[in-house]
Structure formats: C-alpha cells, structure tokens
Amino acid sequence: MADPVNHLERAGFDESFIGAEVPLPELATRAKRLDPGGGGGGDPILRYEHFSIAMSPARKLAYFVAVNIDGARTIELGPRGDDKWIFDERIPEDAQMGDWLYDDNDFDRGHLVRRLDPVWGDSREEAERAEADTFYFTNCAPQHWRFNRRREFWQGIETYILDNTEVHDLRISLFTGPVLADDDPPMEGTLVPRDYWKVVA
C-alpha cells in the first residue's frame, strides 16, 4: 500500500465523470457538517483519489461517500496486504472512530469506498494512491462480519457492481453510506448503524 501524500493534490469525486452532472448528495439542513478547515464556513468535503467523503461530527462516521469508477482503466495491484488503517490528519482524531471501535467484537472495519473501486488511472502510482486512501478511518464504518463478508449480502452487491463495471468498460458514480438513525445502538462513543445504502449512476 502506498504512503499517503499531501491531500491538497487530491481532486476527489468528479461530478461530471459519467458525461452528465451527478452532484454530491445534499445533507439535510439540520445535519451538522464537519469542517476540515476548522474555521467554519469551509468546504465540508474530504477529498481523496477518485472519491470524496462527508463526515458526521456527532457520529464520527461518514454521512456518505462518493466514488468514481472507470472500468476500462482499472489497474491490477495484486492481492490485499495487511490492513493498516490511519487517521486523516485534516480533522481531529477525536472526530474519527479508530481501532477501539472494532476491538474484541464481531464488527469489521467496513470499507465504504471499497478498496478496489477507485484503483484505476493513468499509472500504477495513481491506482496505489487511491488504494491507500481507502484505508483512512473516515472511510470505514462498523459492519457485522456476516453482513460485510458474505456474497449474499454487502460483499455480493459490491462485487456485482465492480464486476459489471469492468466487464462492460463502464464509467459509474457510486454513492454509499450508513443510515444514521437516532435509535441506533450505542458502542464505544458512537451509535452503530444497522442499515446501509448504495446508489449507482
């Protein structure tokens, strides 16, 4: 996995990627936004290689992620190595849920932008940057391992989308997020989402 670099170089999600304007989701007016700039009134979007994230400061998890996938330009990086999740230095560590949320329980660090989704581009280095960017704590949420890993559930949906994108050389914009309900069960300083959603354009 490539070392993270200056995020000012990251363009993030491209709203015109598929040839039509597909904007980022709009948050409800009552939804508080995390300001990576820290000064208020800034851009509440964290931008990575080929994807963007909007964070909930109350839940310390993403409201949503948005990724562009180019099936014709996918680059094979080989098998998954040892996962090393890190904090995004643009926002306070206490605004992100770290390893403690996943210790000694049945929850996986569920990628919201799947590791393989943004792994495409004009060079191997670009693909490696994208892969590395998926291992920020901002890009994961607690998913029960049965839900996360089984092909008849979440993994099956993710695989179906990516396989068809690659087979048919498609460009898609993919949105994913947890359903942040007020009555979600509490655990380790946040509430654990019970439902997740995806939208494909």
Describe this structure in words.
Strand 2 and strand 3 form a beta hairpin. The model has no long low-confidence stretch (mean pLDDT 88). The chain has three helices and nine strands. The protein is globular and about 40 Å long. The longest helix has 14 residues, at 154-167. The chain is an alpha+beta fold. 32% of the residues are buried. Helix content is 14%, strand content 23%.
Average pLDDT, rounded to a whole number, is 88
Neighbour order of strands in the largest sheet:
1-2-3-6-9
Class derived from helix and strand content: alpha+beta
Number of helices: 3
- What's the end-to-end separation, in Å? 29 Å
Helix content: 10-25%
Secondary structure blueprint with pairings:
Blueprint: E1 45-47, E2 51-56, E3 61-70, E4 107-111, H1 124-133, E5 140-144, H2 145-149, H3 154-167, E6 171-178, E7 186-187, E8 190-191, E9 196-200
Keyphrases for this structure?
201 residues; 9 strands; alpha+beta; two-stranded antiparallel sheet; 3 helices; globular
Summarize the structure.
With 201 residues, the chain is of the alpha+beta class. It is built from three helices and nine strands, in the order ββββαβααββββ.
